[in-house]
Design brief:
This protein is 52% helix and 13% strand. It is an alpha+beta fold. It folds into 2 domains: 5-15 and 215-464, Rhopdopsin 7-helix transmembrane proteins (Up-down Bundle), CATH 1.20.1070; 30-207, no CATH class. The strands form 2 sheets. Strands 2, 4, 5, 6, 8 and 9 form a 6-stranded antiparallel beta sheet that branches. Strands 1-10-3-7 form a 4-stranded antiparallel beta sheet, with no helix packed on it. Helix 1 packs antiparallel against helix 9 (353-387) and helix 1 (5-18) packs across helix 10 (390-422).
């Protein structure tokens, strides 16, 4: 499978200009909010059917005014559109309290609402509160039609501190309005600014069939579990190969082992994060930040691994020379921006200016890395053709075909996700959102597997290692053998042999054939001028010139 350089470069730029998809943070199920005034609080989450929503209140250290009463109302709304729930700003969502119609035609769903009244702080902070029966939920009506009177009632009795229950697998908005009231001897009015301050915390929990896990995160947790097992198998297989052929290991094979270990740790840490959310409802912020930093380190080393394989390190080149500095610079830049992006995403600051700069920088770095990869592959395969090294050339052709397949698969996937998730007014395919994160991890794992198979340790590993263009030792041995052969056959008449008067012409024609083969199989492009300047060290340039001069 062979593609023109220009087409490959265009494909790789298109891929890495679009490939960066920032992953979404896992959905938590337990929130603790401090309340100190009239306040509306918005919670967003995808819920399984029959998920129960609990609400508890805990007092602050400050004493509560006995004349204070509280009216706490809630509004639960489901939608078939993922973007209605997660992309609606808080100020607009707060205005939806009590709304009985859809935001747009076709954005169907259901709603339910209720309220609780507490005449004093003591009743608010009781350890066990049995709220009234679950309120009925009703279908949302068209924006231009009258509200429907159709109601669907709950048959179950409420649990302790339970206020609502989800009716189907869907994205939900849960809005709580806390309204303090001044309960005097003769009046009961809403608390104003001039009234005494108060403070307490409100804890909201959403627990369903899979504990605190949501239907959007459950498949991704299973994916990380499977990928953790896959990387353990990768590590065991690679360790077995290295143990069997430890005398023949190449330097590139240690890089592969390091990437496998980091991938194993990354998948294990992310799986632990989702397990923590499943059983505790929330994650430890420090552990999540560590997971993002570990993921950024692994992705940086993964790109460096593909680059050094493309450059032919240990196979075509004995060392990278000054290219090492460029590799380190690219790796550190990618590590820096990916770490900033990951930390901002999990801490809720992903929509700021710094996050935008990190996102654009990552896309630019990825584009440059992919451009560098394909240019390096083009130069390495051209050099192997010049040397007529069939074994190494076959290895790099397989690797190039794998990368081209990855580019094509990525473009197809980007088109699909854009059509399903981006260019739609109502995102109904929210169950498949986890694929947008899993695909890129699976794609690199596939590339890593191909690299492992192609560069696996074996008894013949040294045939892939770097060998000089001209083996001086072999030439010296041949020169030493030639006089001995002449002495052995001295005085013997060689039958069937005739003096070759045109021997020099035949040698010349053989060299002409070699030059003709080089011209036919190694096309001259702009890359021929750019590649040595960009990638080759001075030693490699001299060796290439030496070989061409000898062929001439």
């Amino acid at each position: 499978m062979k593609m023109p350089d220009a087409q490959v470069h265009w494909l790789c730029l298109l891929l890495f200009a679009l490939v960066f998809r920032p992953g979404t943070a896992a959905e938590v199920s337990v929130w603790s909010v401090n309340i100190n005034s009239t306040q509306d609080v918005v919670f967003r989450k995808t819920l399984y059917a029959n998920t129960t929503i609990f609400m508890k209140f805990q007092s602050d250290t400050r004493p509560c005014d006995k004349n204070l009463a509280f009216n706490i109302s809630w509004y639960l709304r489901s939608s078939v559109c993922y973007n209605e729930v997660f992309n609606t700003p808080d100020n607009k969502a707060m205005n939806m309290v009590g709304m009985e119609h859809m935001l747009k035609d076709g954005w169907s769903g259901f709603y339910s609402q209720g309220y609780m009244y507490f005449d004093n702080c003591s009743s608010l902070f009781l350890p066990k509160v049995y709220y009234p029966d679950f309120n009925p939920y009703q279908p949302l009506t068209s924006p231009k039609s009258d509200p429907s009177n159709q109601s669907l009632f709950w048959s179950e009795k409420p649990d302790i501190s339970a206020v609502a229950k989800a009716w189907e697998d869907s994205p939900y908005l849960f809005i709580v309005k806390v309204q303090p009231l001044f309960h005097g001897p003769d009046d009961e009015t809403e608390l104003g600014v001039e009234q005494p301050n108060f403070a307490f915390s409100m804890k909201v929990e959403m627990k369903g069939p899979h504990d605190y896990s949501s239907p959007a995160d459950w498949p991704l947790m299973m994916f990380f579990m499977v990928m953790c097992i896959v990387y353990v198998l990768f590590g065991a297989l690679w360790l077995f190969w290295c143990a069997c052929y430890w005398r023949d290991l190449l330097r590139i094979q240690f890089w592969i082992g390091a990437v496998i270990i980091l991938g194993m740790l990354e998948k294990a840490v992310f799986y632990s994060e989702y397990q923590s959310i499943r059983y505790k409802g929330d994650f430890v912020l420090g552990a999540v930040i560590f997971a993002e930093l570990l993921s950024a380190l692994k992705r940086s080393l993964a790109r460096i691994l593909v680059l050094i394989v493309s450059l032919g390190y240990g196979i075509v080149k004995p060392r990278l020379g000054t290219t090492v500095h460029r590799l380190v610079a690219v790796g550190l830049l990618y590590l820096l921006f990916s770490s900033v992006e990951g930390v901002l995403r999990v801490t809720g600051g992903f929509y700021g200016t710094v996050a935008l700069v990190a996102n654009l920088s990552l896309s630019l770095i990825d584009s440059c890395v992919m451009w560098w990869i394909f240019i390096s592959l083009s130069q390495t395969t051209r050099l192997l053709k010049l040397r007529r090294n069939v074994v190494k050339l076959s290895l790099y052709q397989h690797f190039t075909n794998t990368l081209i397949f990855s580019v094509v698969a990525s473009i197809i996937f980007i088109i699909w996700t854009t059509k399903v998730f981006k260019l739609v007014d109502c995102q109904r395919g929210w169950r498949d959102l986890w694929v947008d994160d899993a695909f890129w991890r699976l794609l690199f794992s596939t590339i890593l597997l191909v690299i492992m198979v192609l560069l696996r340790p074996s008894a013949n590993s040294q045939r892939f290692s770097h060998s000089p263009l001209i083996d001086d030792d072999d030439e010296e041995e041949e020169e030493a053998k030639e006089p001995m052969l002449n002495e052995a056959f001295e005085g013997m008449k060689m039958r069937g042999s005739k003096p070759d008067t045109n021997g020099s012409q035949k040698v010349l024609s053989k060299e002409d054939e070699d030059l003709k083969w080089v011209e036919e199989n190694i096309p001259t492009t702009v890359a021929d001028v750019a590649l040595p300047v960009m990638l080759d060290e001075e030693e490699e340039i001299l060796k290439t010139k030496m070989e061409r001069s000898k062929m001439e």
